[in-house]
Design goal:
2 domains, 5-stranded mixed β-sheet, 4-stranded antiparallel β-sheet, 3 helices
Length: 275
Amino acid sequence: MSRRPAAVSALFVLLVVLSGFTASAVALAPGAAAASTSPPVTGSITGPSVVAEDSASELHITGSGGPAVAQNGTFLGTITYYAQAVGPNLTGIDISPSTLNITNNQSSVATLSTGNATETISIDVMISSTYQGENQSTNISFSVTIVEPYVVSATIVNPSNFTVAAFSVYVTLDGNVIGQVNVSSLLAGGSFKVTYKYATLGLSTGDHTFAISLAQEHGLVTFANGETAYTETVYVTGPAPNYTLWYVAGTVAFFGAIFIFVSRVAARRRGTTRR
């Protein structure tokens, strides 16, 4: 009878030791530690908020955080975006690629193609972070308004007997550059149609001047008679009285053909005369 209390005491001590070991094991479990080291899932979409009908624009999508990324920023798993357009008329609207993996904190580029409907749509994107069977996600969105654009057009002609190398022209509005068009090389007597679509929600009331000008870095060609730019002025009326979505679009066509003056190019190509 005297041995039982000692056995009970020994068993109690053993249970206390085991309980302390179990608590320590739970505290050191890798799953609990891993859950606290994952940063939250975040993402962003950048791109033009106003685009033209029947056009293609770039959207830059980023994503980070979640179980796929360690606390120090190292990528461990996979981050994927899933994108879709939402709007009243999705005819002709496409996002490509609609899903893609994002790597090393670099933005992925998707192309937004539009149809011929003027409207406001939403680009809805889910950013998903996955690693070793664990998944976390977040949803982001970006609003895009599709409008009928101003169309700036001109025909550039090479009337010389020499081929002109490729060059660029700038499109400006009221003295500010709004775009650039790359002109391919022109054979003797060849021509190139310059077309640029300028998407805007509206210009202020009054005169506005569009122009096309040569990129200064080319330095080998000028327009006819030494001109470096051609301009066209348009008058914009005021908004409608109810101030609804307002924009006035049209075609800004430069009168006649714009001729390239290429004597400087010709002079460079004459070379040395043999004797």
